[in-house]
């Protein structure tokens, strides 16, 4: 569930506490998305299989480090704005509005198909957050644009594996990570969790895309 509106006691010079609170609320969900992405990238790093194992395994570590740095910068911006960054797994899971990454041990191309959708979700919502920041706080906007430059490059690294010589992406019509993994042309995949928790399935069954 998204958090309540923040109202800091102070914020950065030149910004009202009301607008500082708006930026804190925007960044709070971006922090959750980035922390979740960093965990997901490591999950894929550990569970990737097949002939492309080493290429994908090694490609994901620099992405993980960069995304952890983005989360750190986001959390510190929340603090500078007078807010409280929440970095624990419990708060992340209780406030996020997307499902856990759904692919377990699987072929490299299957994971890349699913990861393409993960990047699409986080990039779309980072762009929306940057647009909100544009009218209130150019410093926060600049931070998010800096993230987007790297996130969009990382998605290109992923998509280059999924694109044919005509420039068509295998995942174009996929609407879920499972569909994207299958469309990427794979063999066997194992779900991240064989049986979803009934509570979480009921709570978030309508949400198929992460990053919101
Ligand atoms: Fe490793």
Task: Please specify the SSE layout and strand pairing.
Blueprint (H helix, E strand, L loop, with lengths): L16 H31 E2 L3 H28 L8 H7 L7 E5 H27 L3 H22 L17 H7 L5 E3 L6 H7 L8
Parallel strand pairs: 1-2
Antiparallel strand pairs: 2-3
The best one-word shape is: elongated
* Number of spatially distinct domains: 1
Low-confidence stretches: 195-209
Q: What is the number of E strands?
A: 3
- Class inferred from helices and paired strands: mainly alpha
Strand content: under 5%
State the CATH superfamily name. Ferritin, core subunit, four-helix bundle
Q: What labels would you give this structure?
A:
Ferritin_DPS_dom; binds fe (ii) ion; ferric iron binding; single chain; mainly alpha; oxidoreductase activity, acting on metal ions; three-stranded mixed β-sheet; 212 residues; Ferritin; Ferritin-like; 7 helices; Ferritin-like_SF
């Amino acid at each position: 569930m998204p958090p309540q509106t923040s109202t800091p006691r102070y914020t950065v010079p030149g910004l009202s506490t009301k607008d500082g609170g708006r930026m804190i609320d925007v960044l709070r969900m971006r922090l959750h998305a980035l922390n979740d992405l960093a965990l997901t990238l490591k999950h894929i790093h550990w569970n990737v299989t097949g002939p492309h194992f080493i290429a994908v395994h090694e490609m994901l570590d620099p992405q993980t480090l960069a995304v952890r740095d983005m989360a750190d910068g986001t959390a510190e911006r929340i603090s500078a704005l007078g807010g409280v960054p929440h970095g624990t797994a419990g708060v992340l899971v209780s406030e996020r509005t997307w499902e856990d990454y759904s692919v377990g041990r699987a072929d490299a191309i299957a994971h890349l198909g699913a990861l393409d959708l993960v990047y699409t979700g986080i990039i779309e919502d980072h762009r929306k957050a940057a647009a909100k920041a544009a009218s209130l706080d150019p410093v926060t906007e600049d931070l998010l644009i800096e993230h987007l430059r790297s996130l969009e490059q990382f998605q290109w690294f992923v998509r280059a594996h999924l694109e044919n010589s005509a420039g068509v992406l295998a995942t174009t019509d996929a609407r879920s990570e499972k569909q994207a993994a299958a469309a990427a042309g794979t063999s066997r995949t194992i779900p991240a969790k064989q049986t979803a928790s009934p509570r979480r399935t009921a709570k978030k069954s309508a949400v198929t895309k992460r990053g919101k």
